[in-house]
UniProtKB/TrEMBL annotation, chain A:
Gene Ontology cellular component terms for the protein in this record: ATP-binding cassette (ABC) transporter complex
Gene3D superfamilies linked to this entry: 2.40.50.100, P-loop containing nucleotide triphosphate hydrolases (3.40.50.300)
Keywords: ATP-binding, Cell membrane, Membrane, Nucleotide-binding, Translocase, Transport
UniProt xrefs under Pfam families: ABC_tran, TOBE_2
Residue ranges constituting the ABC transporter domain according to the UniProt record: 4-234
Domain of life: Bacteria
Naturally occurring in which organism (per UniProt): Mesorhizobium prunaredense
The name this protein goes by in its record: Spermidine/putrescine import ATP-binding protein PotA
Keyword Cell membrane on entry: yes
Subunit structure: The complex is composed of two ATP-binding proteins (PotA), two transmembrane proteins (PotB and PotC) and a solute-binding protein (PotD).
TrEMBL record, chain B:
Pfam families listed in its UniProt record: BPD_transp_1
Designated name of the protein: Polyamine transporter subunit membrane component of ABC superfamily
One GO cellular component, as annotated: plasma membrane
Residues that span the membrane, as ranges: 12-34, 70-90, 102-126, 132-153, 184-210, 236-256
InterPro entries assigned: Bact_Polyamine_Transport, MetI-like, MetI-like_sf
Keywords: Cell membrane, Membrane, Transmembrane, Transmembrane helix, Transport
Biological process (GO), any one: transmembrane transport
Family named by the database record: Belongs to the binding-protein-dependent transport system permease family. CysTW subfamily.
Length: 354, 262
């Protein structure tokens, strides 16, 4: 087991920059999610770490050893593919044992290791089946067992839960996390599902157009996004654009919004503020005045009831703001109602424009 | 309802007519190889005389062995070379690949008469001349495009992640090919091999051009024999070959379940 360091990695395909000077440090034993829209370079990055493709420039180290020119079969990695890529001509046990068998291990050793790996993914009795006789979730587990049985230094997962239905996905998320903890392997996980990234990983790296936009623990990225893209891609955010006043921004109509977090910017430059929908309180009157709170007035244009919570869309000066309110059963606002929105500066993140 | 049943009946009739069209001449020939009269005269009288005299016909027997040997060797060569070429075309991108792939098809459509003439001229030009070796080379060349087309078609259904998965598990190029890719394309390789065998074993035109008197293949020998005068021995040898090759085809189809099973 080992950590993975990626430094200044660049890779172009023709004129398209798939990876542009990406540096990330994946600590030993951590669970990382690489998150981004399609075409953001997250899969390219994973394939670079795996060794299917070599970088134009930059370095990749696994356990301190530079591997950027080492082909995949010599990197000692384990990989789970999006469609599992189980060998259709082999039994489950032969699939799992493949990595040991190509390393010319003794048959008895292979059988023992395969059984242990299958037990770990709770498929101990299915070794004799063929892949086409398994369900999607079972195939997923076989692919995982096959990837870890060789005791790789790092486990790479390419949207491994993408083909499963919602309920099974949640089960597998928990299962995957349990197995990862149990063997303590450094895991890098590519996904475009923000919820998956938030719930499973110790750290998240957000990619866009081949560049690393932000990297850190899920809470940090969620609470302190460094760009509008990070704010809106990981979770929902209301974005206000204006000019900085130093401690916040002034909107074009003169309204001031105070920000208690985020970048330190010189006054007068263009900047944005991001606020999470669940941080905003919504009411029909000004209520008890809180001199520090940010305050905006608007009109409810739409309300979506979702059981445990409701989402209100509030129109205000040509902008639609989103507010999520827990269902306490106390008060429900009607569409068309005039409302006051309030939130604390601590919930407001100042972001440099661009 | 009545129309449906009528259509069903038509369909069944059609299948039977098709089978009759394919097999009737062969069945008649096979029956006549057991008939006493050498001139296809009825009533039918059972005999194995022609099979006995076939045993004495050294020329026909040696031509049969030539055909079998050339067919087997050219099948092996064409199947191995063709499968390897298909894999190379599947895996690698190189300059002129499209042109090369396009050039693989026309030889299938070029009349064998023309190919045969061209080969004869070419083999004389380069000093190979005529003979069994020239026939073997010719058959390999004729069979190669068939093998490549069939194996490439099978490769189109192969998921490239399987090779990647094998490599990620530490398999080298040879292990990837022999343990993952080959098992998948095997039905294609077998089918390509059957094509190659048929092209060679059936081959008259090219063999005729490239053979020397006395050293030839069965189709050419049969043709020569018929020109001298028809004998039911031809029926006998043909019947044996049909029985053997049909058995081979059915066995292969049974073992490799073409089209079926995933």
């Amino acid at each position: 087991m080992a950590g993975v360091q990626v430094a200044n990695l660049s890779r172009s395909f023709g004129a398209h920059k798939a990876l542009d000077d990406v540096s990330i440090d994946f600590a030993d034993g951590g669970f990382y999610a690489l998150l981004g829209p399609s075409g953001s370079g997250k899969t390219t990055l994973l394939r670079q770490i795996a060794g299917f493709d070599f970088p134009d420039s930059g370095r990749i180290a696994i356990g301190g050893e530079g591997v950027e020119r080492v082909p995949v079969e010599k990197r000692r990695i384990g990989m789970v593919f999006q469609n599992y890529a189980l060998f259709p001509n082999m039994s489950v046990a032969d699939n799992v044992g493949f990595g040991l068998s190509v390393r010319r291990q003794a048959k008895a050793t292979i059988a023992g290791e395969v059984q242990r790996a299958l037990d770990l993914v709770q498929l101990g009795k299915l070794g004799g089946r063929r892949p086409h006789q398994l369900s999607g979730g079972q195939r997923q587990r076989v692919a995982l067992a096959r990837a870890i049985v060789t005791k790789p230094r790092v486990l790479l997962l390419d949207e491994p839960l993408g083909a499963l239905d919602k309920a099974l996905r949640v089960d597998m998320q928990i299962e995957l996390k349990r197995i990862q903890r149990e063997i303590g392997i450094t895991t890098i996980f590519v996904t475009h599902d923000q919820e998956e990234a938030l719930t499973m990983s110790d750290r998240i790296g957000i990619l866009r157009d081949g560049r690393l936009v932000q990297e850190g623990p899920p809470e940090e990225i969620y609470d302190r996004p460094k760009s509008e893209f990070a704010a809106t891609f990981l979770g929902d955010a209301n974005i206000f654009r204006g000019e900085t006043t130093g401690a916040g921004i002034r909107l074009p109509d003169g309204t001031a919004i105070a920000a208690g977090a985020g970048a330190t910017l010189a006054a007068g430059t263009k900047a944005s503020c991001a606020v999470r929908p669940e941080r905003i309180r919504i009411a029909t009157d000004s209520g008890t005045p809180d001199p520090n709170a940010n305050l905006l007035r608007g009109q409810v244009s739409k309300r979506i009831f979702a059981g445990s919570n409701s989402t209100y869309f509030v129109d205000r000066d040509g902008q639609t703001l989103k507010v999520i309110v827990q269902n306490t059963g106390v008060e429900r606002l009607a569409e068309g109602q005039e409302v006051v929105l309030r939130w604390s500066p601590e919930s407001t993140v100042l972001i440099a424009a661009g | 309802m009545a129309t449906t049943r009528f259509l069903e009946w038509c369909g069944r009739l059609y299948i039977w007519l098709l089978l009759a069209f394919l097999y009737l001449p062969i069945i008649i020939m096979a029956l006549m190889s057991f008939n006493v009269s050498p001139f296809y005269q009825l009533p039918f009288e059972w005999t194995t005389e022609w099979y006995a005299s076939l045993w004495q016909n050294d020329q026909l027997i040696s031509a049969t062995w030539n055909s079998i040997k050339i067919a087997i060797i050219s099948t092996i060569i064409a199947t191995v070379l063709g499968s390897a070429a298909s894999l190379a075309l599947y895996r690698h991108e190189f300059r002129g690949k499209k042109v090369l792939q396009a050039l693989l098809f026309p030889p299938i459509a070029i009349p064998w008469l023309i190919t045969g003439t061209a080969m004869l001229i070419f083999f004389f030009g380069v000093g190979i001349g005529r003979g069994l070796f020239a026939i073997l080379l010719g058959h390999v060349a004729l069979a190669l495009p068939y093998v490549i087309v069939v194996v490439s078609a099978r490769l189109q259904t192969f998921a490239p992640e399987l090779e990647e998965a094998a490599r990620s598990l530490g398999a080298n190029q040879w292990q990837v090919t022999s343990r993952v890719t080959l098992p998948w394309i095997m039905p294609g390789v077998i089918a390509g091999g059957l094509f190659a065998f048929a092209v060679s074993f059936d081959q008259f035109v090219v063999s005729y051009f490239l053979s020397t008197p006395g050293q030839t293949t069965l189709p050419v020998e049969i043709y020569a024999a018929i020109r001298k005068g028809f004998t039911p021995e031809i029926n006998a040898v043909s019947t044996i070959i049909i029985v053997v090759s049909m058995a081979l085809m059915l066995l292969t189809a049974r073992f490799f379940k073409f089209g079926g099973e995933k």
